[in-house]
Amino acid sequence: MVLVELLAGFVTSVISQIGYVGIFLLMVLESALIPIPSEVIMPFSGFLVATGEFNLFYVLAAGTIGNLVGSIIAYYIGSRIGRNLVLRYGKYVLIDENHLNLADRWFQKFGDKIVFVSRNLPAVRTYISLPAGISKMNITKFSIYTFIGSIPWNFLLLYVGVILRQNWELLLRYTTILDVIVVISGAAFIVWFLKKRIK
Questions:
Q1: What is the DSSP letter of 32?
Q2: How many angstroms separate the Cα of 21 from the Cα of each of 16, 103, 124, 158, 165?
Q3: What pLDDT, in 10s, does the model give residues 51-72?
Q4: d(C-alpha 19, C-alpha 59), whole Å
Q5: How many Å separate Cα 32 from the centre of its chain?
Q6: How many CA atoms lie within 13 A of 149 on its CB side?
Q7: Positive or negative, the Cα torsion across 143, 187, 7, 174?
Q8: The pTM is what?
Q9: Are 95 and 55 in contact (CB under 8 A)?
């Protein structure tokens, strides 16, 4: 919890000082495997939208474009460096091997479209870019799935921040509950998608 509070302090400081550019840069880092949670970036930005300091559309655009750029960086890390080197040096930026293994399994099982679905699933959403890069997934398709898939997650967190206003930090206490809700929703979507595909 102490680490989360430190990260929250860093995130709020960056956004307060450089605004939309800060949101963009933080989301780039988050999607490029640096453990800066979007669960802090977007709700705090939502609070600033509620105060009239930020525009909702600009925040959503900055966050989503940041996701895209960071994910492309992670894609090329997977493509050029490979899994073993990522694991060897990833510990220095707190890359979780279990999360990477989960992303690997999901990508192998569900194929390209899991990139779209996983953008709304905790843990997997950040790591899915690596197996996509390692497998040399078409970069245009990867970018489209990433951009469109990132919008619902970012909007949800942003809107929660708008509703909670100055109490946005309450979300940090209930991220586990939020994650469970999102995972269940994502699993339901995957089941629906597979049934449709089988038909």
A1: T
A2: 10, 29, 25, 16, 21
A3: 999 999 999 999 999 999 999 9
A4: 9
A5: 9
A6: 28
A7: positive
A8: 0.78
A9: no
**Is pLDDT at 127 greater than 60 in this prediction?**
yes
Evaluate whether 155 touches 119 at the Cβ level (below 8 Å): no
Q: Closest by alpha carbon to 8, among 161, 152, 155?
A: 161
- In this structure, what token pair is assigned to residue 155? 């909007």
- Which phi and psi (to 5°) does residue 169 adopt? -65, -15
Q: Which residues of 49-74 are buried (b: 16+ CB within 10 A; e: fewer)?
A: bbeeebebeebbbbbbbbbbbbbbbb
Q: Where are the domains of the chain?
A: 2-198
CB 68 within 8 A of CB 147: yes
Q: Are 74 and 32 in contact (CB under 8 A)?
A: yes
Among 10-19, 139-148, 186-195, where is mean pLDDT lowest?
186-195
